[in-house]
Automatic annotation (TrEMBL), chain A:
GO cellular component: ATP-binding cassette (ABC) transporter complex
Ranges that cross the membrane: none
Protein name from the UniProt record: ABC transporter ATP-binding protein
Domain spans labelled ABC transporter: 4-240
UniProtKB/TrEMBL annotation, chain B:
Subcellular location: Cell inner membrane; Cell membrane
Protein name from the UniProt record: Iron ABC transporter permease
Membrane topology: Multi-pass membrane protein
Main location: membrane
Classification via PANTHER family: INNER MEMBRANE ABC TRANSPORTER PERMEASE PROTEIN YDCV
Similarity-based family: Belongs to the binding-protein-dependent transport system permease family.
GO cellular component, one term: plasma membrane
Keyword Membrane: yes
Source organism of the structure: Neoroseomonas marina
PROSITE patterns with a match to the protein in the record: ABC_TM1
Length: 365, 574
């Protein structure tokens, strides 16, 4: 096991910089997730670590061993790196049984037959696939294939483990189970792991730290709590969880708080450590669970503000109602248990916990 | 997990010797030598005053002027163009019509008719020519039959028109396959939209289906025009006796059959032909786009709703049956029948002339027996070697980080632009030029080498699409786990490519088995193959022997195709 250092990594495809100056340090035994929409450069970064793609610049070292150094022209082929990579497609060789698939990396390392057999049994037991050793991959379900793919990677004790969207080919229920299983396995093995996904739930529940990527760059790097509660920019706020954005103008600033004026003139009080100057255009971001329908007669308190929104649509989604609102010209969606009967609904918004982003950038797009 | 692991991490030490380097460079060098071998001597010879191996030869541009001034050379060029153009028209009309009728309508028996329509593609134009001769020739079965009832037959195979029909029929399957695959890829809702908006069957076919096929028609037209220019057998059999010479027969006359060939002239004419074909192949590439260059007929997931032919259903069926019978089944059938008879005429009862004598001659005369054995050796062994070579080329081009893989790809596809006659002349020079290769020159191995070079693109066309369907993750997984390129190739890719290699071997076996145009410049006494024996025997007028040799060729190819299809499930349309 070892730590992974990525410094100033750049990978171009033609004119496009798929990975643009990315630096990440993953500590020994740490589980780090690369999270982002498709095309953000997360898989390209992973491929560069595994040695499948040669980057254009930067440096990658694992446990002091230099995998790639653009300035010195060092480039280890994938077979000389000793990474473990689980593919999104699992990439089980269809002409080999489960046992043969798992045996392949051991044969390459000239492990003796008896030892090989013991380790295959051990790793198949670890992923609970022992009874399937003589099956061919096409006879297995998606979840089972995924376990075999993991076993094939773990059997040679890779220096780091790379997982490329390993759960994305499973259906929703199986994915939940596989995620729980993966979380247990990760605690048991303690391998240095890079996990690539576009699923925020996987990222939040599995990772020690998350790297949110956007357009080839790191948008934010932090613990799951950091990322969720203190997103660095509107992109991260929007990508992680559901976020509502309200364009507003700073009307007044007073000691760690700001009064915002929405487009239709309504006012909201917000706590902010470093509020922008009065008159600035801002974007107010908050999670749906932070907002609730105000009780009748409830007014603004020091803890929160009450604002009125126009009801545009209501639709029943099973046990709950989804209500489309218009708040000062901006769209807003709310899920509540009893549908509003009036054309307008009063909403309560807490004073703290919301986030202000500078500028009127259209982050929700 | 375990503490008994002595060697964590990588299987391969960094900085070790990378054995893929010599393998990949070696293969690339081999392909370059193979492809350059016939080209360089021809181009060089075309600028020399004397023979290539003559030390007195000097560089000159005079060959081009001499060629231009050769008597009748203008006529030769015009005939070549006319034959290629007419045969292309015939092929496109029949091929397109067949694609629409068999592929898009409710014509009865469309599948069987489609299979029969394809038959000429599996046979050489040479054998098809003999078949046509046996029924439409001056003493052909149908010709005589017609004459006995209606008087003078209105057709004459010994003319540009007659040759164009034979060549067109033998090339129509290509147009058919390309149009069919284009029809299969077209969104059927486009046609349905036209019909919903009120267009009838024939209007929809004419205004929607046919225009959508235009790219396929245009591409296969250029392909067929190219094949028409390269064609040797039909003009050799029907053109020469009538005094109609085209470029291929011109080349054949001034080199293979000439006692003292004028090498400068031969090479210059060959170079001219090469330039024209290279241009046409480049044009094909432009028309098709680079990726779809050697697309095979793909399986279709949803079959578009077939057009209803209504009252024309049975008349069109009759016409299609007539076409298939008259152009393919009857000529081949009659040729096979001729092999078992001493003489064939509508005036003589069949039982009186049945005999196995033709086959006895094949058995008795060493030259024929040898040509059959040689054909088998060349095809069985040669196709195996070529398949191995092509598999390696495909893996290096599509599945390696070899620095020159794109250049290798172009080089490997270049033989498409080398006509069979040019390849034959070129290899002849190449082996004449290099001392120490005399042993190969008079053996069948020169044929194996020349055939291999010629059919690399054909083989790649069979292997590459299937290889591209194998997920790259499968070899990447092996690489990440510590296998180097060569181990990955042997342990992972080779087993996964087995169906592709079987298909490639089958196609190459058939191609090698029926090849003649390259061979007639290269064979020597002792290294005859069926193709060369057919031509020689034809010249001697031994029609019965020709028919029996051709029958053997047809049967072997038929058995080979059936086996490949039923046992290995190989798809052969390339």
């Amino acid at each position: 096991m070892a730590d992974l250092k990525i410094e100033g990594l750049v990978k171009r495809f033609g004119e496009v910089r798929a990975v643009d100056d990315v630096s990440i340090h993953v500590a020994d035994g740490e589980f780090v997730t690369l999270l982002g929409p498709s095309g953000c450069g997360k898989s390209t970064t992973l491929a560069a670590v595994a040695g499948l793609d040669r980057p254009d610049a930067g440096r990658i070292t694992v446990g002091g061993k230099v995998y790639f150094d653009g300035s010195r022209g060092t480039y280890l082929p994938p077979e000389a790196r000793g990474c473990g990579l689980v593919f999104q497609s699992y990439a089980l060789w269809p002409h080999m049984t489960v046992a043969d698939n798992v045996a392949f990396p051991l044969t390459l390392r000239k492990v003796k037959a008896a030892e090989r057999k013991r380790r295959i049994a051990e790793v198949l037991a670890l992923v609970e696939m022992e009874p399937y050793a003589d099956r061919y991959p096409h006879m297995l379900s998606g979840g089972q294939q995924q376990r075999v793919a993991l076993a094939r990677t773990l059997v040679y004790q890779p220096s780091i483990l790379l997982l490329d969207e390993p759960l994305s080919n499973l259906d929703a229920k199986l994915r939940d189970r596989a995620r729980t299983w993966l979380a247990e396995l990760r605690t048991r093995l303690g391998l240095t792991t890079i996990y690539v996904t576009h699923d925020q739930i996987e990222a939040l529940s599995l990772s020690d730290r998350i790297v949110v990527m956007n357009g080839g760059r790191i948008a934010q790097l932090g613990t799951p709590q950091d990322i969720y509660e203190r997103p660095a920019d509107p992109f991260v706020a929007d990508f992680i969880g559901t976020t509502n954005f309200l364009p507003a103008r700073v009307a007044a600033v007073a000691g760690g708080a700001a009064t915002l004026e929405l487009a239709d003139g309504q006012r909201v009080d917000i706590a902010a450590e470093r509020p922008p100057e009065s008159g600035a255009q801002v974007m107010l971001a908050f999670r749906p669970e932070q907002m609730r329908v105000a009780a009748s007669g409830e007014g603004a308190t020091p803890d929160g503000s009450v604002i009125t929104a126009r009801v545009l649509s209501r639709s029943y989604v099973g046990g709950r109602w989804q209500v489309g609102l218009d708040l000062g010209g901006g769209p807003l969606r709310l899920e509540i248990e009893t549908p509003p009967h009036a054309d307008a609904v009063r909403l309560w918004l807490p004073r703290s916990g919301c986030i202000l982003f500078r500028g009127a950038a259209n982050a929700a797009a | 997990m375990s503490n008994a692991i002595a060697e964590p991490g990588a299987a391969a030490a960094p900085g070790r010797f990378r054995r893929e380097v010599p393998i990949q460079y070696g293969m690339a060098a081999l392909v370059v030598v193979l492809v350059a071998a016939p080209l360089v001597p021809i181009l060089y010879q075309s600028f020399l005053t004397g023979a290539l191996y003559d030390h007195d030869a000097r560089l000159t541009l005079g060959n081009f002027a001499r060629l231009a001034q050769t008597d009748g050379f203008g006529t030769v060029l015009w005939n070549t163009f006319l034959l290629a153009a007419l045969s292309t028209i015939v092929a496109q009309v029949f091929g397109t019509a067949a694609a629409i009728l068999f592929g898009r309508t409710d014509l009865p028996g469309a599948r069987v008719l489609g299979e029969l329509f394809l038959w000429p593609i599996y046979l050489s134009a040479l054998v098809l020519s003999f078949g046509w001769y046996s029924i439409y020739g001056p003493a052909g079965y149908i010709t005589l039959f017609w004459q006995s009832i209606l008087g003078e037959a209105p057709w004459n195979l010994y003319s540009i028109g007659g040759m164009a029909v034979i060549a067109g029929v033998s090339q129509a399957p290509l147009a058919y396959l390309y149009c069919l695959s284009s029809a299969g890829m077209t969104d059927p809702t486009l046609e349905e939209a036209a019909r919903v908006s009120g267009a009838g069957t024939f209007r929809t076919l004419w205004r929607i289906t046919l225009p959508l096929m235009m790219p396929a028609i245009a591409y296969s037209a250029v392909l067929n025009f190219t094949i028409g220019l390269e064609l040797l057998s039909v003009p050799l059999i029907f053109g020469e006796p009538a005094g109609v010479t085209v470029l291929t027969t011109f080349l054949y006359n001034i080199s293979a059959t000439s006692p003292r060939p004028d090498h400068g002239l031969v090479a210059t004419a060959a170079a001219l032909m090469l330039v024209v074909i290279v241009f046409l192949v480049w044009l094909q590439g432009r028309l098709l786009g680079n990726t779809r260059r050697f697309v095979t007929l793909g399986g279709k997931a949803t079959r578009p709703r077939p057009f209803r032919l209504g009252g024309l259903r049975w008349p069109l069926f009759a016409a299609c049956v007539a076409y298939v019978v008259l152009t393919g089944v009857a000529p081949i059938g009659m040729l096979v029948l001729r092999a078992f008879t001493s003489f064939l005429s509508p005036m003589v009862p069949l039982v009186d002339v049945l005999t196995l004598e033709n086959f006895e001659i094949l058995w008795r005369e060493p030259v024929y027996a040898r040509s059959i054995t040689n054909s088998f050796v060349v095809s069985l062994v040669g196709a195996a070697g070529a398949t191995a070579l092509i598999g390696m080329i495909a893996l290096i081009v599509h599945r390696s980080e070899f620095r020159f893989r794109n250049a290798l790809h172009y080089t490997a596809l270049f033989p498409r632009a080398i006509p069979g006659v040019v390849a034959g002349i070129g290899f002849f020079y190449a082996f004449a030029l290099l001392p120490g290769l005399g042993g190969i020159r008079n053996s069948i191995w020169i044929l194996v080498i020349a055939f291999t070079m010629r059919f690399i693109p054909t083989g790649l066309g069979a292997v590459a699409p299937m290889l591209l369907q194998v997920s790259p993750d499968l070899d990447r997984a092996a690489r990440v786990q510590g296998a180097d390129w060569w181990t990955t190739t042997r342990r992972i890719m080779a087993p996964l490519m087995r169906p592709a290699l079987v298909a490639c071997y089958t196609i190459l076996f058939i191609s090698f088995f029926k090849e003649y145009s390259t061979a007639i410049f290269l064979f020597a006494p002792g290294s005859e193959v069926i193709g060369t024996a057919l031509l020689q025997t034809w010249v001697q007028g031994e029609v019965g022997v020709v028919a029996s040799l051709a029958a053997i060729q047809v049967v072997v190819i038929a058995v080979c195709i059936t086996t490949a299809r039923t046992i290995f499930g190989v798809k052969l349309h390339g």
